[in-house]
Amino acid sequence: MKNLTLILVVVISLFLASCADMNKAQKGAVGGAAGGALIGQIIGHNTEATLIGMAVGTMLGYIVGNEMDKYDREQLNHVYERGVSNSPSSWVNPDSGNRYQVTPQPATKTGNKVCRKAEIQTVIDGKQETTYATACRDEYGQWQIQQ
């Protein structure tokens, strides 16, 4: 059993090292899987308990990580909805410390879709980046970034 735990820790550690490009929800899922697997092994002392712990940890970690991203999506939706055209709106994510400044452009109508472009400046892990995005309202009135 101790060999299984050691192998699991090594495999998960290697996987975590390759997670640089994941979003918060994915990182949360990976971290939750690792923690859940270890707790499952400690409590159950068998492979089944380890796998159950990993599954539960994955789900909980994903939920927690996704909620952290949800704050930024809500703020961005608010800027697209109520932001004054050509006037920047800023916020700092209280969980991650990431900073955002979004400057929306006037809304346009294409067919039956209302869309709005915006310049999005971010500072994440000390790295500043500027991107340009267009969002359009979906059938529920939420702004969706267009790919």
The helix-and-strand class reads alpha+beta
Largest sheet: 6 strands, antiparallel
Multimeric state: single chain
The count of DSSP E runs of length 2 or more, i.e. the number of strands, is 6
Mean pLDDT equals: 74
Helix fraction bin: 40-55%
Q: Report low-confidence residues grouped into runs of 5 or more.
A: 62-68
Amino- and carboxy-terminal Cα gap: 47 Å
What is the molecular shape?
Answer: elongated
Number of H/I helices: 3
| Helix and strand element order | HHHEEEEEE
The radius of gyration is 20 Å
Number of domains: 2
User: What is the strand content?
Assistant: 25-35%
Q: Could you provide a short overview of the structure?
A:
The protein has 147 residues and is of the alpha+beta class. It contains three helices and six strands.
Index terms:
six-stranded antiparallel sheet; 147 residues; alpha+beta
Structure description:
Helix 1 packs antiparallel against helix 2. It contains three helices and six strands. With 147 residues, the protein is of the alpha+beta class. The protein has helices at 2-17, 24-44, 47-82, and strands spanning 89-92, 99-104, 108-110, 113-124, 127-137, 143-145. Strands 1, 2, 3, 4, 5 and 6 form a six-stranded antiparallel β-sheet that branches. The chain has two domains: 2-68, no CATH class; 84-145. Helix content is 50%, strand content 27%.
Task: Give the arrangement of secondary structure elements.
Elements: H1 2-17, H2 24-44, H3 47-82, E1 89-92, E2 99-104, E3 108-110, E4 113-124, E5 127-137, E6 143-145
Antiparallel strand pairs: 1-2, 2-4, 3-4, 4-5, 5-6
Helix pairs in contact: 1-2, 2-3
